[in-house]
Amino acid sequence: MSKNRDLINVTNDQAFEQLKALLLSDDWKNFSEIRDQVESLAKEVHDKDQLIEMLDPIIADLLDRKIHESRSEMAEALAPIMGDAIKRQIEDAKEDMVDALYPIIGRMVTKAINEAMKKLIEEINSRIQQAANTRFMIFVKSKVFKIQPAEVVLADGVLFCLEELFLIEKKSGLLIGYQSQNNDQSEKNAHILGGMLTAIRQFVNDAFAKDEKSNLIEIQHEDHNIRIDTARYTVLAAVYRGISPHDFQDNLHGLHHRIHNRYYRRLRDFKGETSEFQGVSPVMKRLFQKYRHHGSNNK
Amino acid sequence: MAQIINKKICLLGEYGAGKTSMIRRFVFDLFSDDYITTIGVKVTEKVLPPIERENKLQQFRFMIWDIAGSEEGKIKHENYWMGASGALIVTDLCRPKTFSCTSSLIEKFLALNNNPPIVIVGNKTDLIPLTELNSLETTLQEMAHTYRCPALLTSAKTGQQVEESFIRLAQCMME
Lengths: 299, 175
Description:
heterodimer, A: alpha+beta, five-stranded antiparallel β-sheet, 10 helices, B: Rossmann fold, 7 strands
């Protein structure tokens, strides 16, 4: 009896297995394939080389699409590393970068030079046209030195324009004398400018000077310059534009020396009374007259 | 016509005493206050009304060097004090504890410039209750007595006695 029951059970198990095989064989096959694929994918994702190989064909397309869809977001994301990336690329492949940038840089430089030359020629022409004596002197010099008139103009510092002269008491920064090439408004501001110039001088000396005798000599801002000549009691500051003629520095120093010698005692005992220095202005004016032919009216 | 005499004066005091605010409405100005924090100083100009003394009119053009304030008695930018003919020493009435720092500031300034005239100014009266003002004024007057100079109470906000402080300094220069 029990034997028969066992036989029936065995038969049922076989039948059940057969039934399972009949019903699920396709699913098992699919499941097995999916499992293999998942394992293979997991392997590729964890393997850096394989992952790169997998993404390589689409990464360019992906970036291209992203740039088109959200340009500003991409720019924002990439901006912080652009400088470093360019720097590294220049270090790694300087020649390649030069080749890549040459067409742009070359064009930019050419354009800038062309514009500067055009401006220079216009300036030279306008200066030459300004005064008959200037033209005559240029003609004479060009004949004597056998060079082009434009070269004479350049050598003389044609772009030079003396704008203002400040004579300042060295310690207090008080203005003793002032001359400008034109307007009255600048004289109104001259006392404050003289004071601030002294403050800047003292700041620079304080910050950078190695010893008490060293002095600030020149301040440059674009095409404006301030040339500073320092004596015992005073500072003579010349504000000018352009390239100074070769003798300008000597003439500025000479003028300062003459004033300093002539007013030495009054400068030593100076207590803020500028009326004692009324004779200074005409002397300062002479420097403007000397460089007037360099185009002082051209502002 | 009054003769104009140019004088460099310094505006000195602890950080936050109200030096720059005090002069802002009273001076001819060209530059930004940023210079005070960058190079430590800004120069402004004040031409005072003519002052009569012994039947003689004199007019002062003050070139005011507004120098960045010191903090907790640590004095900075002494180079800018050179050549000054006087100073307004500005104290903050709201911080009487800083008065002691003011004393050392005055002493250094006087020593560097051969004892020029000074005026001590107690600023921010608009923030002090009347009941406290008398005792603060007494403290300032005691300090002024020590240095034989005048002391005035001012308010940068209302303009109270600001111009008078400069005139007082000019009068001291004429004595």
